[in-house]
Amino acid sequence: MLTPDEINTLTGFADTLADAAARVTLPHFRSGLAVDNKRGDFKFDPVTAADRDAEAAIRALITEHYPTHGIYGEEHGRETGTSENYWVIDPIDGTRSFISGVPLWGTLIALNDGTKPVIGMMDQPYTGERFIGRPGLSELVTRHGRSKLRVSTCTALDNAILGNTDPAMFKTEKERTVFRTLSSEVKLRRFGGDCYFYALLAAGTIDLVVEASLQPYDIQAMIPIIENAGGIVTSWTGGDPQMGGHVVAAATPELHTAAIALLKTAL
Amino acid sequence: MLTPDEINTLTGFADTLADAAARVTLPHFRSGLAVDNKRGDFKFDPVTAADRDAEAAIRALITEHYPTHGIYGEEHGRETGTSENYWVIDPIDGTRSFISGVPLWGTLIALNDGTKPVIGMMDQPYTGERFIGRPGLSELVTRHGRSKLRVSTCTALDNAILGNTDPAMFKTEKERTVFRTLSSEVKLRRFGGDCYFYALLAAGTIDLVVEASLQPYDIQAMIPIIENAGGIVTSWTGGDPQMGGHVVAAATPELHTAAIALLKTAL
User: Which residues 220-259 of B have a C-beta within 8 angstroms of A?
Assistant: First the structure.
């Protein structure tokens, strides 16, 4: 159990990590850099030099300042530490937005205390937005100042804005069917968000995010941001979302219940 | 035919119009404002007070400084002037991004000389990006400075990044079929861009944009930005795109020809 003082210090250290990542990623954004293909899951899932080098920069800082902490990152895998605390990082979540020049990608940094992510950060250095969640407080920090994040009051599907990165992430016909049904029941559906849509859910402008095929590093940083803004994030069956897979985030318990009722039928 | 001096002056005036629109729109962005429903074309096409008030602010400035010019705007319709020059404006293109808190909407301002749009501006005040096209020059202006826009060198569909606002804009089965075919042939497809994807085509990070159901004010501002960055924008049959409808924009003649070969079969 981390103390409030430790939370403060570690949140400040997460800022240092995000700053270090931004120094690597930002010069490559819209620079026409070469990309290469990593996984076969999606048709095109590029990893850039920026992605790998940003994670290396983050890992070097953690190893220097918290040598006992474990690290779990997208690019360079898992290192177990002697402490129960470990960092879960995705240097560029939304690589397809990144290579398309769309500023909806983010650097994701979570500190997991061995039971769950307790500090989460999503940094978008091009727009200058940093979303930070920690026990009792979610904030958006920009060059204009700090503002508290609070989810919307939306309780009904037919009044909800639904976000999803790409329907291609749904692998089974049942998944695709429930997503189509959900899409037809909401007020508005938006694609292409990656981490940015979870951040907007915390900010109150998107009400529901439904995804599948997530990795732990795709979601762990977003969990403290959503929960400490008053939102709910679980698996499609209402379980712990920290290992990724099928994830649903909702602004209110009523909206979450309505979404789960539909989503669980696909599993 | 406008002189280079007139182009300079009118481009500066377009800056004034974009600044005036931003003062109206920006305070409403992510503010949780009420929205209402305007058209039946899409399931949900909201128009905000910001949209209407920003257009009113633009119209007032044009009437004051160029009383002979005509005005064609999304919100308040068409006013014919005594000059052949007229302004084509969409105060918030991408209202669905706007209400979702996604900073991919833009204020679109075009000056049409009676034959075609010759000055085009797309302003995104939240990210602080202003894309400007005029004879011989397309630029992106940010708080960090000015940079020249140049399209990519992509010549083949299988190496192209394709942008589209929402496949729901395709109304016929033939349109949907060719778009699915095109999507399967490109390297990567992105949704949710509105005007922002045309701007990124001019910036060289998106190679192809394919859309339908456009209004003149959805595309006129983007035409000078794309063309003066070296790109091509036409109807799906290769004709003049300024009246909207079916529009294709491409980085190179080769890519444009490949896209047209497929798209024209849908009409």
Answer: none
